Amino acid sequence: MAAVRTFLSIVFSLVLALLGTPARAEVVQVAAAADLKFVLDELVEAYRKAYPRAEPVRVSYGSSGNFFAQIRSGAPYTLYLSADSRYPLELERAGLTLKGTRRDYAVGRLVIWVPKGSPIDIARLGPQALSDPRVRRVALANPEHAPYGAAALSLLDHYGLTAALKPKFVYGENIAITAQYAQTAADAGILALSIAKAPSFAALGGSYWLAPLGTHRALKQQLVILKEGPNTRRFWSFVLSAPARELFRKYGFVLPREP
Questions:
Q1: Any known ligand binding at 122?
Q2: What is the residue range of the signal peptide feature (predicted)?
Q3: Tens digit of pLDDT for each residue in 52-91?
Q4: Of 16, 130, 175, 200, which has the maximum CB count within 10 A?
Q5: Which pTM value belongs to this model?
């Protein structure tokens, strides 16, 4: 009888301990392509205003390829926004995503940008301007793991310029770092339109030429949920909402199912 009382006492104590333990908050951990820095910062702020009691959304920015490798190795992200649709698809095939949550959210645009005061008439000359001897360094994202870098090379291939310009290349780890190089360590850069249109970047001056769609590898961007949770699911839905689409449009993205 004493043993039974002891057993019941232990069980009762465990139940009280569990009831007294607060539920662990689900923080939305987002791995996002670097071209999304400005639009997603605004989007997170809009989400916080719409859901003031929601748990935090924490965003890490970088190259889509590096995030892909980290996620495969078990990185604790709950949502992945890639600048290349191949990575979410491969994660889905590997069983590392929540079924049915892979969606297109935008198509990225590519620009060739020159800093304020540059003698290069980039808007008139387009890619051919990069052959000017006064352009000694051209910044682009590392094509090994940054979709905008791969797209930049395909753009130069389209115009038959890759081989001649290769000695001028300065590689950034992702498109945001590439934009910094274009400002400080190069004479031109092949950048994301979303960065060129950001107010803080546009305030620096400079000009750009917008690459027509079809002249480079398509930047079809997708998101996917990696770990289920009500907060992650709600933020995923918000990224796909009408207000979010307007923000993507503001930063120059082409929206899914739009020309």
A1: no
A2: 1-25
A3: 999 999 999 999 999 999 999 999 999 999 999 999 999 9
A4: 175
A5: 0.88
